Amino acid sequence: MPDPASSSGRGAPAAPGELAAAGEHASQRVLSVVRGAPTAAELAAVVAVLASIRAPSGGPATPASRPEWSARARVMRPPVTAGPGAWRSVALPR
User: Where are the domains of the chain?
Assistant: First the structure.
């Protein structure tokens, strides 16, 4: 299959007849090369990046929450503060 960007010269878009002959839809132009002459590998890389951005992600939208009883903060003691009545904050449960 000829490369549409390189078949028409200096990176100009191919004629609609060439795209239709290649089996693609000529009426739906999604990308067009404005300047330069990209290779087929460079165009494939751009298309792959754009497709991955648009595709929905495979993982869950929000991370699964852990139950509160297994939280590390419950096991750790509160910070010790100096002052009158400080022994109560350390000895008594929250």
Answer: 4-54
Contact 63, 50 (CB under 8 A): no
CB distance 29 to 35 below 8 Å: no
State the burial class of residue 86 (Cβ atoms within 10 Å of its Cβ: 0-12, 13-18, 19+). exposed
The per-residue pLDDT of the chain, averaged, comes to: 70
Q: Tell me: pLDDT of 29 over 60.
A: yes
Residues 6+ apart with CB under 8 A from 94: 78
Which range has the top average pLDDT, 1-5, 11-15, 44-48?
Answer: 44-48
